Amino acid sequence: MAMIDKNEVAKAAETFLKTTECYLVEVLVSPDNQIVVEIDSDRSVGIDDCAALSRYIEERFDRDAEDYELEVGSAGITSPFKIARQYVKNTGNEIEIMLKSGGKFTGVLKSADDDGIVVSVAEMKKAEGAKRKTTVYEDKPFSYKEIKYAKNIIRF
């Protein structure tokens, strides 16, 4: 059985998504041709977006030539961010970051660009001459290379 080419699926998805508000996050193809396509949007992804992309991809890959299973879904609200555009989308949200070095931070995502992010982290610090600690917000920059994962914190 031939394996489906991940790059071909990604290309097809990106071609279709150019006509929508959605963008491609990830394409995974397992050895037994299970294809998972994850999309996101700066607003929200609806079931219709996923269905339309699924149909578009299915029209381009012949199941008779190579049998496959296709799943198109949106990035979950608690899924770790995978691409820079997801960080940009979540600017202003409270996030949790785990660094490859083992450090863990929570804070408000202040900004994001192609190189990395800046997070406003609350720390308890004692000011000079003060008797007790107060909360101080410090902007900490992180490059994408040092981040193991980052995701939204959802509070109810």
Overall, the morphology is elongated
The overall pLDDT average reads: 92
Quaternary organisation of the protein chains: single chain
Rg over C-alpha atoms, rounded to the nearest angstrom: 20 Å
**Order of strands across the widest beta sheet?**
7-6-5-4-8
The major sheet is characterized as:
5 strands, antiparallel
What is the succession of H and E elements? HEEHEHEEEEE
Number of helices: 3
Class by SSE composition: alpha+beta
Number of strands: 8
Strand content: 35-45%
What is the terminal-to-terminal distance? 48 Å
- Taking pLDDT < 50 over at least 5 consecutive residues as the criterion, the unreliable ranges are none
Plain-language structure description:
The chain has 156 residues and is α+β, with helices and mostly antiparallel strands. 21% of the residues lie in helices and 40% in strands. The chain is built from 3 helices and 8 strands, in the order H-E-E-H-E-H-E-E-E-E-E. A 5-stranded antiparallel β-sheet has the order 7-6-5-4-8. A 3-stranded mixed β-sheet has the order 1-2-3, with helices on one face. Strand 1 and strand 2 (34-41) form a beta hairpin. Helix 1 packs across helix 2.
Provide a short characterization of the protein structure:
With 156 residues, the protein is α+β, with helices and mostly antiparallel strands. It is built from three helices and eight strands; from the N terminus they run H-E-E-H-E-H-E-E-E-E-E.
